[in-house]
Every structure is written in C-alpha cells, then in structure tokens.
Inverse folding.
C-alpha cells in the first residue's frame, strides 16, 4: 500500500485550517481512508491509503481532499492553462519500446524546501505506482531557465492529426501544408549507447548513456529498463543532451529552490498513463500557485507508436462522465437519500452531478482528470459513502432472512452445460485471454467489423505473453484452437463451451461490454450444417425457446452454409460450416460445423 509523508504544518496551510491539531487531522484523514502509520525522523506524519487514489501521493493532493471534506471547495475544478510556448518534437529514431511523450510548463513556481521536497516525493511515488517503477512511465522535471529551445521554422502538420494546429501558428503553403511553429523546441530521440556525453545528476564528469548504466548508482538501479534497447531514449535542446529517460536527468537542468519556471516531461510505453501522471503533477503545482502552460507535442511521420504524424497539446485536462443510479447508491449504502443530498455529496467529493429523471433516477457524474480510480459506478457510490461518512452509517439486520444459493446466471450456465453434455458434446474450460492472431486473423475476421467476434477487443497493456494480449471477443476461436491441438486424436470430436467474452463499448460505464456465450463444434469426416443445426435445435428446445436460422454471411463460415441464430425473435449468434481457409490455417483435414450465440438468449 502507498505511504505518503505529510508535513502537518504544510497541510494546515494548504487547507486553510490552522486551528486543526495533529490528532484532528489524523481523525479527518482516517475518514477519507488514510490510516496513520507513524512518523519520520523529520517529524512528518506517514499515512497509508488505497493504491487507487494516486492524487493523494502529495501533501497538495491530501489538502485538496480535505478542503472538499470540510466543504471549503465543491465540485470539479480544472486548472487554466496558457497557450503553448514550447514544443516537444518526437523523432522517428525514438526506440519503439518507449515511443510516447507528454509535457507541460509551470511558471511562477515558489519552491521553498517544503514545496521542493513534496514535488520530489510526488515524482518518486508516481514512479513507484502508476509508472511501474519507471517501466511504464517516467517523469523528468527541469529548470526551464537552463534550457535553450531550438527554433524549428517548418513542421509538417498532417490532415489526420488529432488536433488542429494552434491558432497562433502561421501557415506556410496552405492550411494542410507546412506550418511555421516558431516555438522553442526540444527533441525526444534515440541515440547510440556510446553516443553524446552529458553530466548526470550527482556526478562530477560527463558520461555517455552506456557509462551511466554501469558507473552511476541510479543508472545501475534502472539499467534493466533500457539495456536491451538498440538505441536509448534521450531528450535534447539546442545545447545538447539534458535528459536520459527513464534513468536520470542532466545536472544542467537540476531543479532547486531558486527555480521559478519548470518543464515537466514524461516518457513511457502508454500515452494514457503518462497523461494521467502529468495531470496529477499539474494539479499539485496549481495548488502551489503556479501558472500552467501547454506544450505542443509533435510526432513526426515515421515515429513509433500509434501517434505517428499527430500533433497533440498537453497537458490533457479533460473531464469525463459516468452514470450511476439513485437506487444503486441507496441499496449499496443502505440509507435513503434525497436527490439534492446526493448531488451535494458528489460535489463534496470533488465531482459534479446532473440529475436525470426517467424510468429510474440517474446521475451523470463529471470526473476530474486526476481521478484515475473511477472505473465503475460502484466507485461513485464509494465517494458518496465517504462524503456522507461511513462512520455515520447505522448497522442493521436485513429485513428478510435468506440462505445461500446459486445465482440465476450460474443456474443457467449449469443447465446449458448439462444439456450440451447430454447432446454428446465434451465440456471445455478455456482461457479468457487470447491474441489478435487467434481471435481475428486465423478466423478470417477483421477487428471492428459487424461479424460475430469482430468487436474491438480489450487489450492488456503489459501482457505477460504475446499469446495472451487481449480478452477474447468470442469463444469459437478457443474451440478451434483445441481442435488444432487434437489432430492426433481420434474423430469424431464434439466440443462445447459456455464461457466469458468481452469487447470495447463506449456506451458502457466501464467502457467494456461483457457477456457469457455458448459455442460448440463438430469435427468429423461427414460434419455438415444439418448436423450442427440439429444439435442447436435440441439445445434451444430444452429451454422452450423458438429458433430461426435465416441465411447470412460470416467470414469464418462457408457462403451458403451459414445462418443467423435467432432465438425468440432476437439475432444472437451464427451457425454453419467452417470455411476451408480457416481449416487449412489450423491444419484440420476434416470438416467442422459450429455455432455460437449469447447465453442470455436462453433465459427468457
């Protein structure tokens, strides 16, 4: 669990509550979920908290939570940012293993010893948590006065970029041609291990990146992050190399209590992660009275990663929305609340809520960019509960007594498996994780298509194996994989699975749509559409449902030998004979007939 060191004098000053003694602060912070762990040698108090609230990794973030708790602040606040004066250019030479960058400028920063210590603590705590020990995201903070940006006169702004060029840019050669950026520019690029020298922090001589990894204590600690790269990541200004991410910064741009203008740069393996880390830092600097300024991030054509050719403006401080019902809040917390009271509790949590009246009362909740923890409506319920005060909830016995039993969905799954086994199928339990090759390519299905299984997959950002990089969008590829591995076994082989699948869906609060699916296949020398349809009819008949199979097309099945699965009037799946292209891909020498449909179609 993360532990943050808090100078209580700083906390009182930032909250504006000088009257609070340490014991009162401990009690108030306990109500927010921060538990007192002890004191440091310097007299700071140490608090442990849930690892999802990374915005509380500094005294500024803890003070912000307390101000909401005390009612001094309400609702969502987003810091203002001035237009960009600096540009970060991402060169095609950047290592593909670490292609992404983000940045911001902070001006008018008053860095006394306490503020500097807090900033350094926030940087290191973010490294250890969200940055995965700098592997996923690393932060560099520099004294802007010590940087000299190169003036790059022309930059190509492609028409497919995420953002339009800023209004203050002067186009050269048309709106979609070359553009005179005119901003001082630093460059994120890749260099040879024995490339340019720089003087790293806590060193007394110039070193190449390779020497840093072997001769510098910090370099030795983080050498494993980049040692296997052919080229190392580096950041240059006009004077030369000043940062070797994710390992160490250069001494030239070291931040001290005399620094008044800062450049914050982040590099990493995932743009979303470094953008969220940057947002947390920007909020902390804003709490110190800094003026924030955008940075233009220009990915050159040919740059690694998904943003090649894009022009981004950072920091990204956009809010987002999620929906939660009034009934879910009351049922979970076990209390009755007025709608106005719920809105008030959301605002005291640092959120904004709009009430929607319909068949059920729901709240559209606006979430600030530093809240990386809000993934599900239950996270919003937790915020309401904490603002209300979990200690104020009165325990009570349930109105009715019950005994444990199977969930209705579990009963349906069990009944379906039993019916499939009774029809001669062997029940399978496959992995839920798959890969693009298995899920799409080897099934002749294109990701993002309307075909069953063609939905956009949920990817694992730090996958342990290349074979398991995403949640499967349908179960039939898993069954085909089993058949492929069983070519040495006797035929016929009749396999079935009732399992979990998921795909991306922006209409869902979590961004992911999940459901259970039923898939089955027959592999034998004379397997036909009629054989598999007979089994499907028998299965659907077990649940007193109506089945229709109008003709359809699906890239995994033979044209003219495929049909929709329509149960009680709803199109829920597909059935047919597997296409020879799919069979050849898997070295299968016998015909395969199969079906797949949604399990919940049998529940009506």
């Amino acid at each position: 669990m993360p532990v943050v060191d808090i100078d209580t004098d700083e906390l009182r000053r930032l909250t504006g509550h000088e009257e609070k003694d340490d014991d009162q602060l401990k009690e108030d912070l306990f109500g927010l979920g921060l538990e007192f762990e002890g004191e440091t040698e310097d007299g700071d108090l140490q608090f442990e908290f849930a690892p999802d609230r990374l915005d509380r990794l500094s005294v500024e973030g803890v003070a912000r939570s307390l101000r909401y708790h005390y009612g001094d602040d309400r609702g969502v606040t987003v810091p203002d940012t001035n237009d960009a004066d600096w540009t970060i250019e991402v060169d095609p030479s950047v290592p593909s293993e670490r292609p992404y960058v983000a940045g911001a400028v902070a001006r008018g920063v008053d860095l006394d010893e306490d503020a500097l210590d807090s900033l350094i603590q926030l940087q290191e705590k973010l490294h250890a948590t969200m940055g995965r020990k700098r592997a996923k995201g690393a932060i560099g903070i520099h004294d802007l006065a010590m940087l000299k940006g190169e003036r790059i006169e022309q930059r190509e702004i492609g028409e497919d970029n995420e953002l339009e060029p800023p209004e203050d840019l002067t186009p050269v050669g048309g709106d979609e041609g070359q553009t005179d950026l005119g901003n001082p520019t630093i460059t994120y690029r890749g260099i040879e291990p024995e490339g340019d020298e720089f003087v790293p922090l806590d060193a007394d001589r110039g070193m190449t990146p390779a020497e840093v990894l072997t001769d510098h204590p910090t370099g030795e600690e983080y050498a494993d992050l980049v040692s296997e790269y052919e080229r190392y990541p580096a950041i240059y200004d006009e004077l030369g190399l000043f940062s070797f991410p994710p390992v160490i910064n250069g001494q030239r741009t070291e931040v001290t209590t005399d620094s008044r203008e800062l450049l914050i740069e982040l590099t990493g393996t995932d743009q979303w992660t470094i953008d969220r880390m940057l947002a947390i830092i920007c909020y902390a600097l804003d709490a110190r009275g800094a003026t924030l300024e955008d940075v233009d991030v220009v990915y050159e054509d040919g740059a690694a990663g998904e943003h090649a050719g894009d022009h981004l403006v950072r920091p990204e401080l956009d809010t987002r929305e999620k929906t939660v019902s009034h009934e879910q809040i009351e049922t979970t917390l076990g209390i009755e609340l007025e709608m106005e009271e719920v809105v008030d509790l959301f605002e005291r949590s640092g959120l904004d809520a709009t009430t929607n009246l319909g068949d059920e009362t729901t709240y559209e909740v606006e979430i600030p960019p530093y809240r990386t923890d809000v993934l599900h409506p239950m996270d919003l319920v937790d915020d309401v509960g904490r603002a209300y005060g979990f200690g104020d909830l009165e325990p009570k016995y349930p109105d009715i007594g019950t005994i444990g039993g199977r969930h209705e969905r579990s009963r349906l799954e069990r009944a379906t498996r039993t019916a499939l086994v009774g029809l001669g199928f062997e029940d399978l339990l496959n992995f839920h994780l798959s890969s693009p090759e298995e899920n799409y390519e080897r099934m002749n299905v294109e990701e993002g298509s309307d075909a069953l299984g063609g939905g956009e997959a949920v990817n694992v950002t730090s996958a342990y194996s290349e074979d398991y990089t995403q949640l499967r969008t349908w179960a039939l590829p898993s069954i085909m994989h089993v058949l492929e591995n069983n070519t040495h076994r006797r035929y016929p082989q009749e396999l079935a699975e009732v399992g979990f699948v998921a795909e991306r869906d922006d209409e869902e609060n979590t961004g992911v749509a999940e459901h259970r699916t039923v898939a089955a296949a027959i592999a034998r020398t004379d397997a036909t559409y009629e054989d598999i349809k007979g089994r499907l009819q028998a299965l659907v008949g077990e649940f007193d449902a109506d089945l229709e199979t109008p003709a359809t097309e699906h890239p995994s099945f033979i044209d003219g030998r495929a049909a929709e699965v329509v149960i009680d009037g709803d199109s829920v799946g597909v059935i047919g004979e597997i296409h020879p292209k799919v069979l050849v891909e898997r070295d299968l020498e016998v015909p395969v007939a199969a079906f797949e449909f949604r399990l919940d179609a049998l529940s009506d």
Summary: The first helix runs from residue 8 to 15. Residues 154-181 have pLDDT under 50 and may be disordered. Residues 92 and 303 are 4 Å apart (CA to CA).
